[in-house]
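Lab notebook, bench 4. We co-purified these components, and the gel suggests they stay together. Before we commit to crystallization screens, I want a quick structural picture of the whole thing.
Request: model the full complex, all chains together.
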Amino acid sequence: MSAAAFTGTSVMDIDAAKVRGAGSNVHFDKVSVAYGAHVVLHPLTLDIAPGEILAMIGPSGSGKTTALRAVAGFVRPASGRIRIGATDVTDLPPYERGLGMVVQNYALFPHMRVEDNVAFGLRAQGADKALIGERIKDALATVGMSAYARRYPRELSGGQQQRVAIARALAVRPRVLLLDEPLSALDAQIRRNMVEEIARLHRSLPGLTILYVTHDQTEALTLADKIAIMRDGRVCSHGPTTELYRRPPNRFTAEFLGRANLLPVTIAEAVGSKGFATARHGDVTLTGAGRDEKAGDKSLLCIRPQHLSLTADSEHTNRIVGTLREVHWQGELTHLVLDVDGTPVRVSATRLPIALPEPGTKVPLFFAPADTSLLPEDAGV
Amino acid sequence: MSDAVAIRAPVARTESGKFWIVPPAALLALLFFYPLALIARQAFLDDIGVANVAEVIRVLHSRFFLNALINTVSISIAATAGCLVVGLVLALILAFVPFPGSGFIARLIDTFIALPTFLVTLAFTFLYGSAGMLNAGLMETFSLPLPPVDFLYSAWGVILAEITVYTPFILRPLLAAFSLVDRGQIEAASVLGARPFRIVRQVILPAAIPALIAGGSLCLLLTVNEFGIVLFIGAKGVITLPLLIYGKAIQESAYQVACIIAVVNIALSLGLFGLYRFAAGRLGA
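Here is the predicted assembly.
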């Protein structure tokens, strides 16, 4: 089953035309949300391009779900406008926005069979029987649940129920799919599989814009084209996923998106034409990828644990020495924790020397300048 | 050996525990089943203690009994239907329409359960009676010679009073059921394009069916046996089974007739109670 099957015209398509306009991009224009005097989402301006997956991640209470619910129409913005395509949907009720939504606890209708759950949106939109039958078949095939059409939700596992929830959301052919922590209720193994399935699904539906809210950075890194990191009701960083991971603009992003070692350094030599600056950590000179750092600036050198090596080579030209404190073997990976001049430094290694040094011994660590990122020490947002 | 002892010990405890059934069973028999049995016995015996099945057949075919049965059933069905409609609308508003003070209103409605049923009837006479506020106001405003509103002293008055008194019995289980409805389902339905009425019909109501059945059965049971409201209103020609039993036993001293009607009333009540327990069991109450 492919996305080509989702090409029929339904009443949904016609009704939602006013919503969809020319595209399926989502635009937040200074959108804020407040409950009384308590502001839960500060003015947010953000674009999600058509066909893009934007992951909003952040700790609990950071405002990510509020932003999603504002798009869905369940939360009324205190200020600002929300546009989907060319249409301002700020004042439209949820049932006129032409969206699909999948939530953490699946929210399947327990008294309806799988096929009726999938058909619900189409029936609500007044689609004809033939189209409904076709869409049920297609949507269930897309998520690999065709064999379960006659079952009730209670007869399905968590992963199967979430597949049905996705099929139900896709059956109405939404321009924008809202996913609110859709995998949080699943166990780790099923979650990994579902992340891959959603990625495959999006490849088969490239025009589908997805707003994916999660607190799981792995899901965000795997699925998203772009990530917006939320904190205290504000976006503290936003950009392409790989860029945000490789070059986090601030400490919070560096630490929230994957693990990061942040060595305090002082810029010795400003960023040159190749984009590298020289910095001093104690009496050690290091080279790191910078932006516009100037000599004398206090900075943090961000190095991901997997980019630190116990052995030198031609690329790993930076060298620091730390005292080994802990070793944690986890099968595929071994995690080492070292103390580098009072800063804890983590190393994740797939291959280690046969004879690991004893805790308490001094261990040299090597890393490549290209694997680092300098970020301003005072950018604590 | 030790195993044998370990097995025998609880058996001994169970044996002695069996005797605890005697006191409550004896109490129930004395206070409940024996009087019921006396009523059932009296229904089939005449005043001198001779079996009289002909009298049973005569009463069951009599006009006064059939009228009372029809009145009882029709009033209780109408009142229950009214309670279901009013209770459902109120519960939907209280549960799903956010407004300040909804909790207070729900508790206020609950207090009706604590009040004696005839109190509402008394209040109704002040409001809708011949000399009540409504009639007085209308007569004064429109210079009418006679009270224009005259429904209170009819079956409609009984039905309205019963709806007022028994709606909380529908409201309570419905609010409990609605509190268990996953808000995510409502939101998902809404995003999928369902308007509020469809959501109520296809998402909320199916989840509330056991509560509706349980509340409705209880309501039906209570309205079938309602005595105070019917007596207090004193509607002309509105005689229900409980009122007929009272009249035959107390006013006419026709004990066998009263007992025959009581047996029918008991059978009706037990049937409805069985329905209520079945529904409440499904609800998990």
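Chain B has two domains: 1-42, 56-283. Worth comparing against the SEC data before the next meeting. The two ends of chain B are 45 Å apart (CA to CA).
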